[in-house]
Amino acid sequence: ASDQSGRQSAPNQFLEPMTSREETRVNQAVQISGVPSPEPDLQELMVLVARGDQDAFARVYDAVSGPVLGLVRSVLRDPAQSEEVAQEVLVEGWRTAPRFQASRGSAMNWVLTLAHHRAV
């Protein structure tokens, strides 16, 4: 390909259209809006945690531990104390999961509210 001055330019592989096979792989890798995820969301996982499902709790822990630690750290400003409080919040989330009500808000907000209350 050449530009307006007639100089040869390298083809830009990022502008070439995808083949249908590549597009299929991308669509499988990225959730398309309106298509339900095969994985349960946090609300569904919290229902399972409330029933004592340890695997569901491990998945909730993976999803919320970073935001919980970040919130607690922003309040306390002490990394060691923040880690301890974040751990206490996650244990409290396990113990009090039956109190979670999806009709009152998201699971993430519920856990972050626990974290904020514990940190202040």
How would you characterize the overall build of this protein?
- The protein has 120 residues and is mainly alpha-helical.
- Helix content is 60%, strand content 0%.
- It has five helices and no strands.
- Helix 4 (79-95) packs across helix 5 (107-119).
- The chain is globular and about 35 Å long.
- The termini are far apart.
What layout of secondary structure does this protein have?
Layout: H1 20-29, H2 42-50, H3 54-76, H4 79-95, H5 107-119
Helix pairs in contact: 2-3, 3-4, 3-5, 4-5
**Unreliable stretches:** 9-15, 26-33
Binned, the helix content reads 55-70%
C-alpha Rg, in Å? 23 Å
Distance between the termini: 62 Å
Q: Major sheet: size, sense and barrel closure?
A: none
SSE class: mainly alpha
What average pLDDT do the residues reach?
81
Beta-strand fraction estimate: under 5%
Q: What's the total helix number?
A: 5
> Could you tell me the number of beta strands?
0
Topology order in helix (H) and strand (E) letters: HHHHH
The shape is globular
List keywords for this structure.
5 helices, 120 residues, mainly alpha
Brief account:
By secondary structure, this protein is mainly α. It contains five helices and no strands.
